[in-house]
């Protein structure tokens, strides 16, 4: 990634053991974007674990879920349990924030949800274009 700053990299990985390493790499390299859960990590407890870790380390700079489904039936159940899990993790994070004395507004929460479900990915792609044109790379 350091040697290819003009390229953007989208990563979703199978090994559970690599999830933390990818989070750290995504913090170091602005041209790396983590998204979703690969087919065999699309198990509710792994989705929750990975989503919590990614939120803790990367905030809203991830895409928490995507669809690699090959048939419509898979999209329906995958999104059903993923949305529920992502919502639970978000509620926990907003509760943590509220304990500090700042209660996010409805508008801020809606902004964050929009960022997580498409807006952040679009921002990543736009940033990649800026990185490529300016030569500015954070390592």
Instruction: Quickly name the level 1 CATH class.
Output: Alpha Beta
Summed up, the helix count is 4
CATH architecture: Alpha-Beta Barrel
Q: Which fold name corresponds to the CATH topology?
A: TIM Barrel
**Strand line-up of the largest beta sheet:** 1-2
Gyration radius (Cα, Å) is: 16 Å
Overall shape: it is: globular
Low-confidence stretches: 131-139
Looking at CATH, the homologous superfamily is Metal-dependent hydrolases
Q: What is the residue-mean pLDDT, rounded to a whole number?
A: 84
Let me know the number of strands: 2
What's the quick description here?
By secondary structure, the protein is mainly α.
Written overview of the protein:
With 139 residues, the protein is mainly alpha-helical. It has a single domain, classed as TIM Barrel, CATH 3.20.20. It has helices at 19-28, 44-58, 72-99, 106-134; strands at residues 9-11, 32-34. Strands 1-2 form a two-stranded parallel ribbon. Helix 2 (44-58) packs across helix 3 (72-99).
For this entry, give a set of tags.
mainly alpha; TIM Barrel; 139 residues; globular; 59% helix; disordered C terminus; two-stranded parallel sheet
Topology:
Elements: E1 9-11, H1 19-28, E2 32-34, H2 44-58, H3 72-99, H4 106-134
Parallel strand pairs: 1-2
Helix pairs in contact: 1-2, 2-3
């Amino acid at each position: 990634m350091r040697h290819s700053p003009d390229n953007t990299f989208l990563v979703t990985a199978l090994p559970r053991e690599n999830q933390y390493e990818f989070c750290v790499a995504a913090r170091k390299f602005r041209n790396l974007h983590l998204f979703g859960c690969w087919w065999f990590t699309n198990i509710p407890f792994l989705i929750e674990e990975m989503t919590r870790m990614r939120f803790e380390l990367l905030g809203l700079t991830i895409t928490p879920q995507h669809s690699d489904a090959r048939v419509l039936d898979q999209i329906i159940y995958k999104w059903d349990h993923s949305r529920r899990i992502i919502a639970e993790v978000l509620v926990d994070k907003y509760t943590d924030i509220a304990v500090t004395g700042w209660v996010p507004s409805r508008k801020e929460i809606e902004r964050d949800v929009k960022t997580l479900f498409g807006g952040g990915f679009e921002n990543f792609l736009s940033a990649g274009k800026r990185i490529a044109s300016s030569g500015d790379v954070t390592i």
